[in-house]
Amino acid sequence: MPLSEHEQRVLEQMEQALYAEDPRLASTLKSNARGVSALERRKVVLGVLVALGGLALVVVGVMTQLIWVGAVGFLAMVLGGAWAATPSRHGKAHLGVVGPDGKPRRGPSGGSRPHRSPRKPGGGTFMQRMEQQWDRRKEQGPY
Fold first, then answer.
1. CB atoms within 10 A of CB 30
2. What spatial distance separates the first Cα and last Cα of the chain, rounded to whole Å?
C-alpha cells in the first residue's frame, strides 16, 4: 500500500532532519539500506558451494572407507562455512576520534595509542582506585 502525499512529505521532512542532525549516521543507514553487494553475495554463494563440495567429499570418504578423503571434505565444509559467514572487509569503516569541534577525524596512525585525557587529581593508578573503592564498600557495610 503506497504512502499518501502527506505521509511522503512527513517522511521527507524526517529524512532531512536526520541528515541535518547527524549526517554520518544518515549516510551509514543509507548505505546499509542498499542491501548486500554483489561481491558479498558471490562470497556467500562460493562459501556455501565449497561447504557442499566438502559434504560430498565426506560422503565419498565414508563410502570408499578412505579416511583422508573424509577429513579433507570436513575441512572444506568448515572452511567454506566460515568463509561464507564472515563479513567482507570491503568498505569497512575506520575508527576515528571526535575532535574538539565535534566532527569526526581519522584516528591516530601507526597503531599508537590515542592521547588520554588527564585524570582528576587524587585518581591514582587503576589498582589504587580499586583499593579505594574496596575500602569505601567495607566501610559502608553489607547493606
1. 12
2. 58
* 45 vs 27: CA distance, rounded Å: 28
**Grid coordinates standing for 35?**
542491501
Number of C-beta neighbours around residue 77 at 10 A: 19
Contact partners, residue 77, CB within 8 Å, separation at least 6: 50, 51, 54, 55, 58
Q: Which of 7-16, 26-35, 74-83, 95-104 has the lowest mean pLDDT?
A: 26-35
- C-alpha 128/C-alpha 125 separation (Å) is 5
For 29-97, give the DSSP string: HHHHHT---HHHHHHHHHHHHHHHHHHHHHHHHHHHT-HHHHHHHHHHHHHHHHHHHSPP-TTPPPPEE
CA-wise closest residue to 39 among 84, 88, 82, 83: 88
Residues 104, 24 contacting (CB under 8 angstroms): yes
Let me know: does 39 contact 90? Beta carbons within 8 Å: yes
- Give the pLDDT band (50/70/90) at residue 107: low
Going 73 to 76 to 82 to 87, the CA torsion angle's sign is negative
